[in-house]
Amino acid sequence: xxxxxxxxLLLFSSLAAAQTVTFSEHIAPIIYGNCSTCHRPGQVSPFSxxxxxxxxxxxxxxxxxxxxxxMPPWKPDPGWVAYRDERHLTDDQIALIxxxxxxxxxxxxxxKAPAQPKFPDGWTLGPPDxxxxxxxxxNAPADGNDIYRNFVLPTGLKEDKWVRAIEMxxxxxxxxxxxxxxxxxxxxxxxxxxxxxxxxxxxLGSVFTLLGLSALTGGLGGWVPxxxxxxxxxxITMALPKGSDLLIQTHFHPNGAAQSEKTVVGLYFGPKPAxxxxxxxxxxxxxxxxxxxxxxxxxxxxxxxxFTLPYGVDAVSVSAHSHYLGKSxxxxxxxxxxxxxxxxxxKDWDFGWQDxxxxxxxxxxxxxxRLDGEYTYxxxxxxxxxxxxxxxxxxxxxxSTDEMGSLILNVLPKNQGDLNALELSTVLFALTPAPQxxxxxxxxxxxxxxxxxxxxxxxxxxxxxxxxxTRIGPASLTNAKLAADGRLASNLGGTEVLFDGVPAPLLYxxxxxxxxxxxxSVDGKTGTQVQVRTTAGGTSDAVALPVAQNAPSLFSSDxxxxxxxxxxxxxxxxxxxxxxxxxxxxxxxxxxxxxxTRPGGVDGRIATAANLPMPxxxxxxxxxxxxxxxxYAGAAPGQVAGLMQVNVRVPVDAPSGDLQVQVQVGxxxxxxxxxxxxx
Length: 679
Known about the structure:
By secondary structure, the protein is mainly beta. The protein has five domains: 23-118, no CATH class; 130-270, Jelly Rolls (Sandwich), CATH 2.60.120; 278-431, Jelly Rolls (Sandwich); 445-546, Immunoglobulin-like (Sandwich), CATH 2.60.40.10; 553-678, Immunoglobulin-like. It contains seven helices and 43 strands. The strands form eleven sheets. Strands 33, 37, 38, 41, 42 and 43 form a six-stranded mixed beta sheet that branches. It has a five-stranded antiparallel beta sheet with strand order 6-3-9-5-7. A hairpin with a 2-residue loop joins strand 37 and strand 38 (626-627). Helix 1 (23-34) packs across helix 4 and helix 3 (59-67) runs antiparallel to helix 4. The longest helix has 13 residues, at 419-431.
């Protein structure tokens, strides 16, 4: 996306160096805890990581994959909500791997290594209570359209059981797109099984024919590429009645080679629960009513779905599903108090790594909580996963080359007596066509980014933000102007940005991008509702965003949020490799996101020498990891409230070169990667 320059820019902890990093003491715990579950014989990963020899053989690959965070495959953006068994490596763990590889990958004392993980009989969760296997393999063709095939596996159960976990082992992983599990007590599925000479029977809609609309409540879960088998939390199980069959609907995507699928499923049982689990989806039913229609070449197509809880629930787990054009996925919950919780945020969607994420603790969502599911798609040539070259128009559909999209939340009703009514409300939601956006402005919360770091996240009082979307402003770029009261105007080209109904000062507006300054009225809140209002298109749907006291970020010279900072040297020159700062000299940094000020911030006010508000929270500056002498931190003279100027002295003992610089306000630090050139 093109960025316009706003007016205001005119103007680890680590081991000691002498300590040797070894496999036994430092690397094995990381590998065994985050990698070996998939990297072992019989699993999807191409090589094993169960021994020192295994790890050394792939050490450099591991170093590269972890440094880029491609591995381990943990997609949720960290820091919003705690999940169970997170595989997100810390910066320190990644640094340890880098140091170990650079040192020649020493083994160290093998007696100090943790015990090698054990996976009994090849099952991640240990021996199942019941193993079911297709008696005959299904032959998937080498090419042709995608196939939805329903397989019937009799359980032979003589009494009711309650399922706590399911582990599926596909034999043809490369063509199995996904699978869904349902209990089925009827006879129609058995009657249809094998009628065409192959095991099972065809049809995506067959599940609804057999099970009715109850299929929308989630069944027994499912399997997608990247799924890690997990037990449900203690006390939570799913009913599998006596005499029932396990119905597995498998979606095959032919890839050019004929394959045979002979699914094996392990079931793990637990006690009967006090409350039954059910499922909510936004958008509903994998987005079938969300009017997905992605033009060829569109790199930022957006879909939203909203559902308000008619009863209180406790959220158990969350997941997302789309196909190859998926770009990002986000699920937020706006509580009746106004607090906004981000339940899942996948900023870099990857079809090959879909998983279910169990919350570390149940998340209470009271009656009246609004759930917002947001998906973004990339149907351009820049998306290397795009199945169409050149790109073509893509609509909702069952084929892998079509698209769908939904955020999926598994919940327990707070009161078991509300279960049936809750499930009925989700069914009605699924049957209701999604409201047409029409000519209204459209953006989603992941399309609001920090004006300095360019990253999506929380908002703070006075933070400069950039919004991307469709029809969110005038056809032509309109730059900032001063209103009659001398403050920055909150209406440009017939466009306003509202935070809980309060108009924000605007820096520029255009049809696809605008910049605003978050009103100081969000101070003290835990969430805010954002809307764009235009005279031509009306008002957009409300987008929920969490609010933080402070979230500082530094501006970069090229507006990318990283690299050379937007820094002025003591002599007034622009800092950079050609004009580095002298050691001991003073440099001026520019930031946003410092939060509320003293005296209190006034929306759109231009700072003067007589009125230079300063952040309420303490400010610190770190150059090359060491705290530097701070001379001033507050409003930038002659600039709009929300732009903070920081004057700091370059340490006389700082090394020469491009050094990392960060600003800390309270406990929050600015983004890493901003550099200061020192001679």
